[in-house]
Amino acid sequence: MKLILASTSPYRRELLGRLRLPFDVVRPEVDETPAPGETPAALALRLARAKAQAVSAAHPDAWVIGSDQVADLDGTPLGKSGHREAAIEQLLSMSARAVMFRTAVSVRRGEVAFDSVDATRVRFRPLSREEVERYVDAEQPFDCAGSFKSEGFGIALFDAIETQDPTALIGLPMIATARMLRAAGYPLP
């Protein structure tokens, strides 16, 4: 069975590679603009589904994995910062606060789909502007929701992480993904 990751994210590629299944990578063409009033969890799920559907339409015989992550700061979605100043402001807004990270995954082939949304709560410690600037300059996390990489130097920004699946914070909830791939017929442990 052909498997496709509908993402060019190196983080998701590395995570999916842990399952030791052969897969291809296809960039999904999806508008990621939030809909008015859309909650962060609904946005993450809609985008994960849209990415899987977009690639599945071009590859109807393959199982396609789409995923998306949205940081949820008191109901306000925070996406990828894109550049240094936005990353600094984003991280400062999360200083000494708890932020939910909604990571959705959709596994689809044709009209058959499995979906899941993981919620990971991250408690940021109090952060000074100098610490944030030092972190942003060192890691340049402009392509990450919330502007940090928990698998790297970003772990130093936290007081605690509360989650059912530690891989969700990196960008692809592997416990749910493995469960869905087993349901699709993949021989996983």
From TrEMBL:
* GO cellular component terms listed in the entry, alphabetical order: cytoplasm
Co-factor(s): a divalent metal cation
Q: Name one GO molecular function term.
A: nucleoside triphosphate diphosphatase activity
Sorted alphabetically, the Gene Ontology BP terms of this entry are:
nucleotide metabolic process
Enzyme Commission (EC) number: 3.6.1.-
Sorted keywords for this record are:
Cytoplasm, Hydrolase, Nucleotide metabolism
Family matches, as SUPFAM superfamilies: ITPase-like
Which residues does UniProt mark as catalytic? 68 (proton acceptor)
Query: Where does it mainly reside?
Result: cytoplasm
Site feature: Important for substrate specificity: 11, 69, 151
Q: Where in the cell is it found?
A: Cytoplasm
Q: Which family does it belong to?
A: Belongs to the Maf family. YceF subfamily.
Q: Please explain the role this protein plays, according to its UniProt record.
A: Nucleoside triphosphate pyrophosphatase that hydrolyzes 7-methyl-GTP (m(7)GTP). May have a dual role in cell division arrest and in preventing the incorporation of modified nucleotides into cellular nucleic acids.
Q: What is this protein called?
A: 7-methyl-GTP pyrophosphatase
Q: Which organism is this protein's natural source?
A: Noviluteimonas gilva
Species lineage:
Bacteria, Pseudomonadati, Pseudomonadota, Gammaproteobacteria, Lysobacterales
